[in-house]
Every structure is written in structure tokens, then in C-alpha cells.
């Protein structure tokens, strides 16, 4: 059963504060998963307005801030940060999500859409790796108005169970992206 809500015109949507948490572990090299994340980010930027803000956290063996929250109309700066990402290392999803939520919480604005967006193949192998353990307080952030949407990037080998459970806990959405057409959708 599929249910679709009504479409909101771009000019009617609230301004957004988007914090991307991007998996740059070695498994994201397979099938050009990270390359597909970069393409999807480029597509998304064309749909945002100057009042939207974009921040980026990346994680592999460690989590790091790649881009502090930046107005979405600073496209070149955002895409330079995205294109600087390279896959390698382990998958410390817990650290990436914690740092992403820290950034989102600092930028939280109750008058805007506040969303953490996880882009990953869902394979966590360092730190806490179960959905319950990774972020026990995801639902607390969701009650505050910071939701979590997860996007599974991969061609056959990804952990959609983890990603779906995290999105459910974060009052967000889950989608699988395996090519450019799916990224556009």
C-alpha cells in the first residue's frame, strides 16, 4: 500500500535547515555510491532557495564537519565541499549522527523545517551498530522538531533495515537511491 501526501509548491514550503550526514567509508566506493550522493546533492541544491541552509558532516573511521551551515544559494561553496569528499576507512555511523545532530541542534529554528539527512549504504561497523544503540535520543530530537530522513545508496549491498528503523525513530522518511533517476524522484 502506498500513500502520498499532497505536494507543496516550492514557494509555499517553509525555509529549511538541512544537515547532511554523509557516509564516506570504504563501502561507499563500491558501485560509485558516493558519486551518486554527490549527484543527488547537486540536484537538490537546484531546488533550494537562498533562505535555506545546508550543513555537511562526513564520517568514515571518524566524524568531521565538512561545511558549517551555509545559505543554499552559495552553491559553489557547498558543491566544493561535497566534491572534496572521498571514500575510505571504517563506518562510524554513530559518531556521524551525533555530530550531525549537534550541528542541527545549534541551528535549530522552530519556524523552519529542521532535518538531518543521512546518506549511507547503512553498513555500520564501528561503535554502536544497532538502530536502538546508535542514537537512543533520535526520537527526542524529533519531538523537538529535528527530524531524520535516511537515504540508502547502493546497488544491492546496503542495510535498508537499519536505515528504515532510524528514519522511523526520527519521524522522517526513508528512500533507496540506486541511480540518478531515483535521486531526481
Low-confidence stretches: 1-8
Molecular shape: globular
Q: Estimate what percentage of residues fall within beta strands.
A: 15-25%
The count of strands amounts to 6
In which range does the helix fraction lie? 25-40%
List the defining traits of the structure above.
alpha/beta; 6-stranded mixed beta sheet; 185 residues; disordered N terminus
Describe the structure.
This protein has 185 residues and is an alpha/beta fold. The chain is 34% helix and 24% strand. It has a six-stranded mixed sheet with strand order 3-2-1-4-5-6, with helices on both faces. α1 runs antiparallel to α2.
Sum this structure up briefly.
This protein is of the alpha/beta class and 185 residues long. It is built from seven helices and six strands; from the N terminus they run βαββααβααβαβα. It has helices at residues 33-45, 75-83, 93-107, 131-134, 138-144, 160-169, 180-184, and strands at 16-23, 53-59, 63-71, 113-120, 146-153, 174-177.
Which secondary structure elements does this structure contain, and how are they paired or packed?
Elements: E1 16-23, H1 33-45, E2 53-59, E3 63-71, H2 75-83, H3 93-107, E4 113-120, H4 131-134, H5 138-144, E5 146-153, H6 160-169, E6 174-177, H7 180-184
Parallel strand pairs: 1-2, 1-4, 4-5, 5-6
Antiparallel strand pairs: 2-3
Helix pairs in contact: 1-2
Amino acid at each position: 500500500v502506498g500513500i502520498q501526501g499532497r505536494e507543496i509548491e516550492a514557494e509555499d514550503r517553509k525555509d529549511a535547515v538541512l544537515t547532511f550526514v554523509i557516509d564516506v567509508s570504504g563501502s561507499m566506493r563500491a558501485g560509485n555510491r558516493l558519486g551518486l550522493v554527490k549527484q543527488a546533492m547537486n540536484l537538490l541544491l537546484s531546488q533550494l532557495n537562498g533562505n535555506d541552509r545546508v550543513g555537511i558532516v562526513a564520517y568514515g573511521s571518524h566524524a568531521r564537519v565538512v561545511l558549517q551551515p551555509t545559505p543554499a544559494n552559495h552553491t559553489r561553496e557547498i558543491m566544493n565541499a561535497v566534491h572534496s569528499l572521498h571514500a575510505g576507512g571504517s563506518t562510524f555511523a554513530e559518531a556521524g549522527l551525533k555530530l550531525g545532530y549537534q550541528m542541527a541542534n545549534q541551528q535549530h529554528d522552530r519556524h523552519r523545517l529542521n532535518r538531518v539527512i543521512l546518506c549511507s549504504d547503512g553498513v555500520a561497523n564501528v561503535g554502536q551498530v544497532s538502530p536502538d544503540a546508535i542514537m537512543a535520543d533520535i526520537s527526542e530530537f524529533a519531538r523537538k522538531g529535528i527530524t531524520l530522513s535516511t537515504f540508502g545508496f547502493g546497488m544491492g549491498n546496503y542495510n535498508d533495515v537499519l536505515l528504515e528503523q532510524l528514519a522511523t525513530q526520527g519521524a522522517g522518511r526513508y528512500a533507496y537511491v540506486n541511480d540518478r533517476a531515483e535521486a531526481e524522484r
